[in-house]
């Protein structure tokens, strides 16, 4: 009986990762890893639209670029890079939903920043080198820890326990003075019980954009204990990033690489240079403990503990605007004879010092084909925000590093979930998934100068999900699901107004065909929003996208992904996403008059997204991949302004991997070449759009002025990598 259970659970694990794994002596480890995974991931039979990626899928292209860039060719995914080359600050959108709506978990622990709800991969450089597998769920997906997903969930599992010892060294060089060095090791199982593994990485790059440099360091260390029924992991990982700011974008495309950050002008208004420390400097360390236990053949449990410590700042030179005002800096005007000085050039640092505590508990029951998962999460985030004045041209005798604002964000969350999978007939299986979230969010203090910023908000959300899967045959299944998600506003939403929570009803209808030589997964979805906090296109003074509640809106689309194995040498992996993304009955104040625009396009939501990977393996040691991404037209605003339109683009990459089998004690030597944008297309993947009312040019009328900025991406560029396995 025990052997039957083992085999069943092993097969389940295969379904979760959609990969073939050889049955070996570490079967129990796989079973116990699955305990954690099952609470946050969808199985191949669940009525959830998802795609699985394993470490082999990432290996040949993992040469230092961030995880969003590595996921660029998945269905419905659009990625961008502030520096233009995939290193530094990068972003991801899924089904038109920005990164703040993509719920990311690392080993089941929420990674999204509690206040901004965004994900900053720059804080974990080269993290892909410590990833075992990834699952991207589009739509609401299954219950996960953290804020409710409004576009997608990205579930990341770090390195599994290794039976055999190994060490490896990887080095990459590329365009824009890109250099990456990575060292990995594992002791393998010691006494069949213990393993210690780790990674050290360093990445540097000048970026495609002027001065968009990155200096990135990261580490990963894991200690594991396992026996037949227990798997305990202690994991420590983190990173330190120093990046020159490149989030300003440009409004004049005559010089695609120009970066206005840090501009210094002389007394005559002429550009005299750039401030050399206009940069982010931030450290983030994660401490995780995971304990998975198989109690008996029916029950298993999982405990997760997390502490994340982040601290750092961005430094900025200011010579104009409100940032130079004495009131903004909390200073008194200087009286010099008959002259009153109320502004000054200055250098400031805006700090964030934060602590994040998480506890997760889950239990899993499996009998025959009935599966029950339930659990809870408790988290608390404490974020200290403050600004220091480093230097001022006219500031009297103030002390250096004087704090000119201080505020603290305190956010507590309780999350309880349960889901059950129950066969109704031999072919029909039901799925029910419920989530309850309770959030308390407080902010107290100042934003700048005398401006008080206080928030005291409490939320309770009940997010149900249900669906059915019909197994029409051994290789075909249909599914339908309905999911509801509700989510609280972010910190920046409160800074920009009085936001309301947003609500999403998600309907998914799918058809999966899985045969020996090919698979085709297709789905239709309808995402109906109420009070969606949609991107306006504008940025605030620190580069954070501004959002606002927009009433009713929807996303309706079809997605198809497939893989065809034509032979042992050729495979073809296309995907396409077609969608209609609509603001319903939209109003906009133009020229001082509230104007009805009818139905408009949702911002940053292209109607067409196509991806394709063509793979040719002429031998066991050589692999060539040609990757193509096509993005249709998209608007950066919700008002269908022609000035806010980003043109469609197509970009292709070439990926070559060649493996040697050397002697002299070496296992393998692998050479990887990635040529990005091999056709040298000039394209723009992201931008910003703003409006303001001009009531001073003509005092008798108001004129709405529009403006836009862009983030050009690099033309043809390359990264060449060498990996030596010992």
Q: Label the structural class.
A: mainly beta
Number of spatially distinct domains: 1
The CATH superfamily turns out to be TonB-dependent receptor, beta-barrel domain
- List the uncertain runs: 1-29
Helix share of residues?
under 10%
CATH architecture: Beta Barrel
Determine the CATH topology. Maltoporin, Chain A
Overall mean pLDDT stands at 91
Total strands: 41
- What is the count of helical runs? 5
Can you give keywords for this protein?
726 residues, single chain, Maltoporin, Chain A, disordered N terminus, 22-stranded antiparallel beta barrel, five-stranded mixed beta sheet, 6% helix, mainly beta, 58% strand
Structure description:
- With 726 residues, the chain is mainly beta.
- The chain has one domain: Beta Barrel (Maltoporin, Chain A).
- It contains 5 helices and 41 strands.
- It has a 22-stranded antiparallel barrel. Strands 1-6-7-4-5 form a 5-stranded mixed β-sheet. Strands 2-3 form a two-stranded antiparallel ribbon.
- α1 (2-17) crosses α2 (27-38).
- The longest helix has 16 residues, at 2-17.
